[in-house]
Amino acid sequence: MKTKTVFIAEDEPLARETLRDWIQAHPQLRLIGEAADGASALKQIDKLAPDAVFMDIQMPEMTGLEVLQRLTHAPDFIFTTAYDQYAVTAFELNAIDYLLKPFSRERFDAAVERLLEVAVPSKDLLQLALKQAAEQETAMLKRILVRDRGHIFPLATDEIEYLKSEEKYTVIAARKKTFLVRIGLSELSTRLDPGKFIRIHRSTLINLDFVESMRADDQSQLQIQMRDGTLLVANREASKMLRGMSI
Asked: Each residue of 20-65: pLDDT tens digit?
């Protein structure tokens, strides 16, 4: 029974701990290293040359796809992701499997079974997959996985009322609550329907479906009343754009 060496590249402590426990409990897997950011993952994977990597897509400093593009060593890899549409085409072509967070032990076991059976893909196939993954990154999101009181659940983007930037995080208002996600507002804004979501300020994005009314203040900037009672102020550029959208 051949054993495969495994590396974990995952910035979320809970997900990393879960993977570590399950890998160490599997008789055909041997964990040889971990990294919590892309730069460390790149360095250690090339140094340790594992047979397989559980690769998070969104990591600090460098994404999982960027790590793969720069690797000299070419291991098997299983992606872990919080996006249901993230680079699905690439995964089908190239990755052994992908685990959509939060994943179950059964889903992990199924991925490992594929890992132990599937041959290593060619370098050409890897490059093709990475190219298609880069193209897929621009696809519109239909849902985002968010956390609330220790639980993780999918939130449809149509339910999002507005988003506000808060340092390295984004505050999402939906379902009469607010959720904090570790994805920058600039990144999210490119993945949301531009027909609904309008940037009214460098740090604020609104869903027009949840706007109650708008009116200009003394400086001709629009005050936007959301249905939940929140009052937001659009900058001059956004105010001009919104006026231009009115009939």
From this structure: 999 999 999 999 999 999 999 999 999 999 999 999 988 888 888 8
Identity of residue 136: Q
Ramachandran assignment for 47, one of left (phi > 0), alpha (psi -120 to 50 degrees), beta (any other): alpha
Distances (CA, A) of 33 to 4, 6, 22, 140: 13, 7, 14, 34
In whole angstroms, give the CA distance from residue 162 to residue 227. 11
Whole-model pTM over 0.85? no
Question: What is the side-by-side strand order in the sheet with 76-81?
Answer: 29-35, 4-9, 52-56, 76-81, 97-100
Q: Give, for 161, the enclosing helix (H) or strand (E).
A: none
CA 14 to chain centre: 16
